[in-house]
Amino acid sequence: MRKRTQVITGIDIGTSNIRVLIGEYDYNTENIKIIGYSEKKSEGVIKGEISDLLKVSVILEEAVKEAEHVSNKVISSEHLYTAVTGSHIRTSEGNGTILINSENKVVTQQHISEVLKSTRSQFAPPDCIMLDTIDGSFIIDNTYHVLDPAGHSASKLEAHTHIIYANKNRVESYVNLIKDQGFETVIPVFSGTATALSVLTSDDFDHGTLVINMGGGTTEYTVFNNYTATVSSVLSVGINHIINDLCLGLEIDFPFAREIFSSGIVQDKKKNGEEYIEKKGTLKTRKIPIVSIEKIIELRLKETFEIIYEKLENNYQINTLNNGIILCGGISSVPGIHNIVSDVFDMPVITGTAQNFSGPENIVNNSGFLTAVGLLRYGAHEIENSRQTTKSVIRNIDHKLWSFWKKIWRALINE
Predict the structure, then answer these.
(1) Mind spelling out the 3-state secondary structure of the chain?
(2) Does the first or last residue of the chain, that is N or C, have fewer Cβ atoms within 10 Å of its Cβ?
(3) 13 backbone dihedrals φ, ψ, rounded to 5°
(4) pLDDT of 284-316, one tens digit each?
(5) Which CATH number fits the domain 90-167, given the four candidates 1.10.287.130, 3.40.50.300, 3.30.1490.110, 3.40.190.10?
(6) CB neighbours (10 Å) of residue 273?
(7) Residue extents of the structural domains in the chain
(8) Distance between CA atoms of 19 and 335, rounded to whole angstroms?
């Protein structure tokens, strides 16, 4: 009897939290149901990179056991993915060209594999490995662009690929840490790619969308347009930097600054018409103006988003963002964040939500879990690419979007 479901696991080791998600993929409906989950406070991770293996290992072991207990499943190495981020992430654009020498001049899957392989033949940066390859459009005979050239007549076929590199040692730290939990294999995925996969619709992939994911130690941003990635990058700035700004600007300790930022106390005070937050000391009680707190947070956020804007403008990407911006991660819940981002970019901003997932609402609707959710989506498309023909998949999902995914997994398989 044919297997109807497949268990997929995503592990997101972040600066502030370590999250494990177990999803059950239904082959018939192509839906992913979250059946196991765990979230633990992180230690030993700085700016998205592992600094203390022992601390992270202990927390990860607890998270894995808890997710397995919730799901009543044992995590398998067969479909296990982890998110990778940090300042070591690099990107480049690969280009390749081949001649179609067959008698009938019809582009075949073999031709596509050859031209994609040539786009990835360039040398990686020193000490780096290729983490992800996201193929763009193909060009036939220097004339027109197509998403899937199979079956077209051509004398020459060109391809363009967005390549994401990562430092080999940093990636191995993630992978070996998870292997030490007893798993034989784990596939690393760029965190920014995973987050985008969880929130983007077919229309977003097609018409230009910027996804910004700010976590505790890093901010990842990716641009998708015409079903391909055009920008992928990481800033070593996150929520912890905002909290540190509050420490310095208000002369308070880090735990109290974190409480101010995360607990909602500012909003509660404002609702009650209060203008200060009290900080009790040994000798006296200080009154901290709420307006000062909001100004410090706004200045750091505005500066971060202005950096992203400038980088995209220099790459001629701003005018391609027809569908605007999607915010993910812990920053998406900050009051007024949409106005801050919109003022910088002058375009619509929304908070990211997981697309086509089912499961506990506190997980599916939790912006902090979006990267882990995207890892499950990544695994689901890998499964589909390996088990079904293109014809059978098109029966259930948008043709263009499937062409986009088909190219991603073709690249992965031919690595």
Answers:
(1) CCCCEEEEEEEEECCCEEEEEEEEEECCCCCEEEEEEEEEECCCEECCEECCHHHHHHHHHHHHHHHHHHHCCCCCCCCEEEEECCCCCEEEEEEEEEECCCCCCECCHHHHHHHHHHHCCCCCCCCEEEEEEEEEEEEECCCEEECCCCCCECCEEEEEEEEEEEEHHHHHHHHHHHHCCCCCCCEEEEHHHHHHHHHCCHHHHHHCEEEEEECCCCEEEEEEECCEEEEEEEECCCHHHHHHHHHHHHCCCHHHHHHHHHCCHHHHHHHCCCCEEEEECCCCEEEEEHHHHHHHHHHHHHHHHHHHHHHHHHCCCHHHCCCCEEEECHHHHCCCHHHHHHHHHCCCEEECCCCCEECCHHHHCCHHHHHHHHHHHHHHHHHHHHHCCHHHHHCCCCHHHHHHHHHHHHHHHCC
(2) N
(3) -95, 100
(4) 888 999 999 999 999 999 999 999 999 999 989
(5) 3.30.1490.110
(6) 6
(7) 90-167, 240-296
(8) 24
In the numeric block, the tokens 């890093």 are attached to 218
Token output for 220: 């990842």
CA dist., res. 277 & res. 255, Å (int): 15
Residue 220's contacts (CB-CB under 8 Å, 6 or more residues apart) are 85, 190, 191, 192, 195, 212, 213, 232, 233, 234, 235
pTM of the predicted structure, to 2 decimals:
0.87
Closest CA to 192 of 370, 16, 340: 370
